Amino acid sequence: MAKQPTHKCTECGAAHFKWSGQCDACQAWNSIIEEAPLTTGPGKKSLGAMRGKALELSDLNAKDDPPARTASGVAEMDRVLGGGLVEASAILVGGDPGIGKSTLLLQVAARFARNGMHVIYVSGEESAEQIRMRAARLKLSQSPVRLAAETNLRDILTTLDKERPKLVIIDSIQTMWSDQVDSAPGSVSQVRAASHELVSFAKRTGTAIILVGHVTKEGALAGPRVVEHMVDTVLYFEGERGHQFRVLRAVKNRFGPADEIGVFEMTGRGLAEVTNPSALFLSDRDKPAPGSVVFSGIEGSRPVLTEIQALVSPSPNPQARRTVVGLDSQRLATILAVLESRCGVPFAGLDVYLNVAGGMRVNEPAADLAVAAALLSAREDISLPAESVVFGEISLSGALRQVTQAENRLKEASKLGFTSAIGPEQKKLPRVDGMTLRTMPDLATFVQELFGTDPAP
C-alpha cells in the first residue's frame, strides 16, 4: 500500500511525507508540522493518517426550501408519495407477483412523460416488445417513455449518465447484477450492491428512481433489509387475486406521511383510480346479516369504511380453527381471550373465520371493537343495525380506549348514509349532523347492551 503523507503546512495546507524546514508549495519557513493519525488501529483496517475534506456544517434553525415536487396526474399515486415525486428521491415498490406493479408503474411513467419529464423504463424481467404490448393494451403507445431491457448494472448506469433522465424505473432490482460482485443475480450481495449504486446515482445527479422489489411468502420485501434503509420511500402494493381492488400503501416516507394509502381498481384497461374507497368497499354489501359489521377506520389521512365479516361454527375437530384474512391473527387471539376472560363469552370448541371484505387489510387498533362485534353477532346469530358503524380499541382489562379522529370517522359514515355509530367514550364528544354516537365504557357493557349476554362475575 502506498505511503500516506503524515505532515502538512500550516500556511497553505499542503501535504508532505516528512518534515522539512521550508514548504515547497508556499516557500514558508518552519510551517510544517506532523499530524496525528485520523484513526488508530491496524494499518489495513483503519483510516490511518490521511485526512478527507472537512464538512460544511449548518445550524438547526437554518431554513431550506422544501423539496420541489412533480405531480404525475395519478392522484392516488401522488397522495401516497406525499404530494408528488421529489427530485433525487429513491422509491422501493414491493408486491406479490402479478398484483399489478409493472402495470401501475408503466401508467405512472406514461403520465410523467406526457407532462414533459424525461423518463426511462428499464426492465430486467421482460423484453421491450412485451412492455410495448402492455402499453398498447393500456392505450399508452404514444407516450414518450424510453424503454430498455437490460440487467447489466454497468451498462445501465452508463446509459443513465449519458441520458440524464428525470425519472428511472428499474423492474426489478432482483434481476440487476454487478460484474464486481461474485454471486448470482438476486443474491443478497448483488441486491445490496445494485441498490447502493442506483441510489447513489440518484442522489448525485438529481434523478428520481423507482425500484421494483420482489416479496417473500410472508409478504416482506425479499433481499437484505438494508435496501429499505437506503431508499427514501417504501411502498407496498396489496390486494387479493380474486378482487379487483388494489391498495398502494406507504410504510416509509421521508417526504410525506407514512401509512397513507391509494386505492385502485383493476380493469381491462389497467388500474383506475378510486376517489371514494369507502363506497367501493361497501358496494357489494348485502342486507344486514349476523357476523357483518361496518368499521369506520383511518388509513393515513383519509377515513375508509370497510366491512368486517365473521363466521362462528361448532368445530368437528379437537383443535378449533382460527382463520383470518385481512387482519392480524395475533390480534384476533387477544380479542377472543378478552371476550372469554372479561365478558364470560367462551369460544372454546368453536371454529372462527374472520375476513375483511374487498381484499382490504386493516392494521388499526381501532378495529378491535368492530371485530368483537362481528364475532358476537355471528356467535349469537344477531344482526347489528344496518345504519350503524363501529370503532374502538379494546384493552386487556376489557376497557374501551378512545380513538383518534373520531369526527372524521363519523363524517365519512354520514356521507355514505349511516346514521349511528358505536364507540368508546370520548373526552370531547364529536358532533356531526345526522349522526348519533352511542358510547360504551367497556367491552362488558357493550356485550350486555347489544347482545344481552351478562358479563362474567
From TrEMBL:
One of its GO terms (cellular component) is cytosol. The keyword Zinc applies. PROSITE patterns: RECA_2. Residues 351-457 are annotated as: Lon-protease-like. One of its GO terms (molecular function) is hydrolase activity. A motif (RadA KNRFG motif) lies at residues 252-256. ATP binds at G95, D96, P97, G98, I99, G100, K101, S102. SUPFAM superfamilies: P-loop containing nucleoside triphosphate hydrolases, Ribosomal protein S5 domain 2-like. The keyword Membrane does not apply. Residues 66-215 form the RecA family profile domain. Plays a role in repairing double-strand DNA breaks, probably involving stabilizing or processing branched DNA or blocked replication forks. The middle region has homology to RecA with ATPase motifs including the RadA KNRFG motif, while the C-terminus is homologous to Lon protease. Belongs to the RecA family. RadA subfamily. This is DNA repair protein RadA.
